[in-house]
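Quick question, first post here. What does this chain look like in 3D?
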Amino acid sequence: MFAIIDVETTGLSAKNEKITEIAILLHNGKKVTDEFHSLINPEKNIPYRITQITGINNQMVANAPKFFELAKKIIEMTEGCTIIGHNVTFDYNFLRSEFQEFNYIFERKTLCTVRNSRKYIKGQPSYSLGKLTQSLGIPHTDKHRALGDAKATAHLFDILLNIKPDLAGGKAFYLPPALDKEIIDKLPHKTGVYYFLNSKKDIIYVGKSINIHKRILQHLNNHSTRKSVEMINHIADLTYAITGSELIALLLESDEIKKLKPIYNRAQRRSIFTYGLFSRINKEGYYELYTDKIEPLDKPYTSFQSRESAKEFMYKLVEEYELCQKLIGLYKTEGACFDYQIHKCQGACIGKEPTENYNKRVVMALDRLQFQHKNFYILDKGRKAGERAIIQIVDSVYQGFGYISDSEIGNKTSLTNCIQAMKNNKDTQSIIRSFLNHHRMDLIIG
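> Answer (accepted):
Ran it through. Tokens below.
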């Protein structure tokens, strides 16, 4: 039995975002036998850019059931089923993340129609759902809505079953020709950095994960792009470094990519944070915040991987600190901003709010982005019991990381001596600030 699933979400990260809509079609290998569809209240704001894509807005989900109210239905419908999806990892990871919030482990077999379309329907100019349905003549109404996309995926699944009737009976993962399965079997379920090597022992890719074994299997099952398939077929060996600490894994991955320049990490060889947040004072005396591309000598308050992520962050600042959309660059107008018209802005855009009142809130927002202390150590999980990971900051500059036994944590000399020197750059600063903003960490000050 198969469960063809599609979800719409508030963003791309299963760790940080939520489901706004779900559709489940049960398929017995011959036809669809049952159907379930519902909007879901994500209990968080739906970004405007997501609404533009899906058409789902905050008003539509305000009275919809929350995920936990649908959880029992989803479990019952998918029990004993293989989850089918177009880029199934996306939908499956969101489901697992939602269930994890109330400590339920949701585990199902999965099958990806992207991967199998590349394998059995060759020669397509694109394997996106919209382009495939168009080229194959598959009905596809309500694009980017859960039910419409699930129905289109069901038609695609039917085509794949006609080509390959035993489609769901394949191996657990694809093993590259030159890679020994024993290497995969011995991979640890621990946090760290991993390296893919080709037959010449050149490192072709560096990645990080909180579960190295699981993440590498995801790579081996990812046939969604030509680049991913090409990389998989070039893997002849792999190695890894256990870090224990997720923060150290992020920092080490960034450093290794810049140093080794792996061929399949092209996008990350330079800074992965290309946009920065800056401030200026306008002629009326108000602080203006704006985002722009980071130039070599720039020192932004914080940085972002894309213009879209920068814009999304600015919307959060507006909401959290009651800042003016006009003065933060989100609403271009000669007069009042939109929020003032609906009584959410206090009038800084038209000089109505005193500059000292408005600027005080801007300073509060910017203070949040800085390290609270100039000199400190971050304590995190070690690689084994009785050990702690240490990250050192001196004069607000990242120095490096190391490991120390629990018994030596109170010894400042031991803390300093354990640090392995690493390069400080905009990426390391952004990684550390972002991690501290989203995780509660133990610190040693001074």
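The chain has four domains: 2-169, 181-268, 275-367, 376-445.
The chain is about 35% helix and 20% strand.
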